[in-house]
């Protein structure tokens, strides 16, 4: 998803600014390698980061990072993709109320899958546990595809997954969607309630995507980028493509994105402390 979004927005940004935009994937350490490269780059607006949840999650999980979070500055948040709580349809769990009743009746006996320790899907489930006061055992898999396979095969009863990644299985009946994790219902699954509707006050989690720059980038450059991105995110074709991939659009300028990231980081710090999650 992040690569697709970078290419979509990058191609349009090149047209808006009259500058070549090169997408340079930097995998490794849950996004920390790419973030570190941007953090130490010149603050001239020519090196940007496609920002995503690891930017606010990693500081809660690692005792030391290869960069200082304060060395990366927000430019604009492009959109958010809901996570969705899904269960095996053969589990007998038909609602969040059913799930909570079973989890509280048999603490520790239910299992949930994730795509690995310290991922946003892992932390989404731990936030769910801390909010509901339940004990559900974590089973980490090597990647989201393996986790979904484990759910479908009955190895686990539930998991949180990015909506686009599991939409086909939901529509095909291989898994059942119980709730989405954003404050508003998803346009893609309008009949599926939010966790907030079901009583989990303030439960708001998503895979978010934005653009960031090295700290110290001049306000004039940030403003130019911000205005270009806002214009791009209003284009009908960009909206169509993004929404077809399950994204909920709502551009945030730099200041609002910074506040959003700060709140997100504090949330994951609390969750990591509650669940005693560390990655080094």
Name the features.
280 residues; alpha+beta; D-Maltodextrin-Binding Protein, domain 2; 2 domains; eight-stranded mixed β-sheet; 10 helices; 8 strands; 43% helix; 19% strand
Architecture blueprint of SSEs:
Blueprint (H helix, E strand, L loop, with lengths): L1 H16 L14 H8 L9 E3 L2 H8 L10 E16 L8 H10 L5 E4 L5 H13 L4 E4 L3 H10 L4 E5 H10 L3 E5 L25 E9 L4 H14 L3 H9 L3 E6 H22 L5
Parallel strand pairs: 3-4, 3-5
Antiparallel strand pairs: 1-7, 2-5, 2-6, 2-7, 2-8
Assigned CATH architecture of the largest domain: 3-Layer(aba) Sandwich
What's the total number of strands? 8
Largest sheet: 8 strands, mixed
Shape: globular
User: So what's the CATH class of the largest domain?
Assistant: Alpha Beta
Describe, in plain words, how this protein is organized in 3D.
The longest helix is centred in the last third of the chain and has 22 residues, at 254-275. Helix 1 (2-17) crosses helix 8 (219-232), helix 3 (54-61) packs parallel to helix 10 and helix 5 (120-132) packs across helix 10. The mean pLDDT is 94. The chain is globular and about 60 Å long. It folds into 2 domains: 2-80 and 206-275, 3-Layer(aba) Sandwich (D-Maltodextrin-Binding Protein, domain 2), CATH 3.40.190.150; 81-180, D-Maltodextrin-Binding Protein, domain 2 (3-Layer(aba) Sandwich). Strands 1, 2, 3, 4, 5, 6, 7 and 8 form an 8-stranded mixed β-sheet that branches. The protein has 10 helices and 8 strands. It has helices at 2-17, 32-39, 54-61, 96-105, 120-132, 144-153, 163-172, 219-232, 236-244, 254-275; strands spanning 49-51, 72-87, 111-114, 137-140, 158-162, 176-180, 206-214, 248-253. The chain is α+β, with helices and mostly antiparallel strands and 280 residues long. Helix content is 43%, strand content 19%.
């Amino acid at each position: 998803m992040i690569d697709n979004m970078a290419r979509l927005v990058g191609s349009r940004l090149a047209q808006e600014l009259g500058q070549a935009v090169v997408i340079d994937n930097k995998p490794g350490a849950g996004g920390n390698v790419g973030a570190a490269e941007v953090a130490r780059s010149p603050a001239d607006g020519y090196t940007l980061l496609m920002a995503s949840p690891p930017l606010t999650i990693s500081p809660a999980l690692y005792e030391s990072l290869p960069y200082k979070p304060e060395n990366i500055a927000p430019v604009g948040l492009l959109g958010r993709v809901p996570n969705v709580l899904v269960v095996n349809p053969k589990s007998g769990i038909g609602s969040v109320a059913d799930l909570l009743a079973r989890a509280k009746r048999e603490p520790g006996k239910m299992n949930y899958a994730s795509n690995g320790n310290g991922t946003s899907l892992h932390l989404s489930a731990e936030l769910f546990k801390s909010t509901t006061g339940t004990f559900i055992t974590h089973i980490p898999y090597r990647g989201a595809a393996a986790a979904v396979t484990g759910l479908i095969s009955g190895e686990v009863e539930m998991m949180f997954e990015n909506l686009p990644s599991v939409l086909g299985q939901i529509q095909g009946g291989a898994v059942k969607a119980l709730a989405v994790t954003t404050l508003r219902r998803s346009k893609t699954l309008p009949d599926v309630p939010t966790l907030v509707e079901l009583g989990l006050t303030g439960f708001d989690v998503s895979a978010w995507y934005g653009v960031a720059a090295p700290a110290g980038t001049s306000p004039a450059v940030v403003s130019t980028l911000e205005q270009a991105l806002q214009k791009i995110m209003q284009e009908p074709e960009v909206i169509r493509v993004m929404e077809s991939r399950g994204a909920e659009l709502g551009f945030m300028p730099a200041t609002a994105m910074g506040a959003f990231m700060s709140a997100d980081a504090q949330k994951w710090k609390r969750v990591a402390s509650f669940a005693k999650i560390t990655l080094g």
